[in-house]
């Protein structure tokens, strides 16, 4: 399903995303008409709209458009992407006044507990890291490089050699004291990460790849999958089945979510 402002989107309206690719988005998982962290997703859209277009976004209307696009319960879980962009944006005049519009797309959600990831550290800092923008070339190119080296995905390190995040997820570690350690550095602030911080003792600190391998366990987080274990980094195995990661996954699944 693909709707722009509540009506089916045509090729002409989608052309700007393909050719200009200027906008921002958020991705949420809808289960039984409810979304974990819905308010945080809406806050992100409003914040990023001001950063990208210099204008306010009517988040009540966004919520209504998502509600329209999602079948009434019961139904299987869906991944919903809300993209905000201006189909009339002039490539030569991006500073012109914009009229952002709301594109809502849906797809069936994958399993809530996919297998653990094998990660490869690669240096990459996303452009405007704090904004969830639609320019995904850099992160997908890095993911491709990791897969060509035999891994499932990339684990980003910054120019100083510190771990930051992944292409479409945040990363966390469990230390010997049962604390969750979130790496310090330029990274997209994830909604799932924000929710997990409310559920378990945590700290934020610089983490090098060597320090990551010294942690008891590692996991990645995003709205589509929740909490996913990490099996290895750069070919070095990490323990799976850690009780803290298991507890985090269960606590996250048990969050009731907010009704659309």
From TrEMBL:
Biological-process GO terms, alphabetical: carboxylic acid biosynthetic process
A GO molecular function held by the record: transaminase activity
SUPFAM superfamilies listed in its UniProt record: D-aminoacid aminotransferase-like PLP-dependent enzymes
Leader sequence residues: none
One Pfam family it belongs to: Aminotran_4
Keywords tagged on the record: Aminotransferase, Transferase
InterPro entries: Aminotrans_IV, Aminotransferase-like, BCAT-like_C, BCAT-like_N, Class-IV_PLP-Dep_Aminotrnsfr
Family statement: Belongs to the class-IV pyridoxal-phosphate-dependent aminotransferase family.
Stated name of the protein: Aminotransferase
Annotated source species: Streptomyces kanasensis
């Amino acid at each position: 399903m693909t709707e722009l402002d509540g009506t089916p989107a045509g090729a002409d309206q989608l052309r700007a995303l393909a050719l200009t690719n200027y906008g921002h988005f958020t991705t949420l998982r809808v289960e039984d008409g409810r979304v974990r962290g819905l308010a945080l997703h809406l806050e992100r859209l409003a914040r990023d709209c001001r950063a990208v277009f210099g204008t306010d976004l009517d988040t009540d209307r966004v919520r209504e458009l998502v509600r329209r696009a999602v079948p009434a319960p019961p139904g299987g879980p869906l991944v919903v992407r809300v993209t905000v962009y201006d189909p009339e944006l002039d490539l030569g005049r991006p500073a012109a006044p914009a009229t952002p519009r709301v594109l809502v797309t849906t797809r069936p959600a994958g399993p809530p507990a996919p297998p653990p990831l094998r990660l490869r550290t690669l240096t990459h800092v996303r452009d405007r890291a704090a904004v969830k923008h639609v320019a995904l070339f850099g992160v997908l190119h890095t993911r491709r490089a990791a897969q060509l080296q035999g891994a499932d995905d990339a684990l980003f390190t910054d120019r100083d050699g510190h771990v930051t995040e992944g292409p479409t997820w945040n990363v966390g570690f469990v230390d010997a004291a049962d604390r969750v350690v979130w790496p310090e550095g330029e990274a997209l602030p994830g909604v799932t990460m924000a929710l997990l911080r409310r559920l378990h003792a945590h700290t934020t600190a610089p983490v090098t790849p060597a320090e990551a391998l010294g942690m008891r366990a590692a996991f990645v987080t995003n709205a589509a999958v929740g909490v996913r274990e990490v099996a290895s980094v750069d070919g070095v195995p990490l323990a799976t089945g850690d009780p803290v990661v298991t507890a985090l996954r269960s606590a996250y699944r048990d969050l009731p979510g907010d009704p659309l």
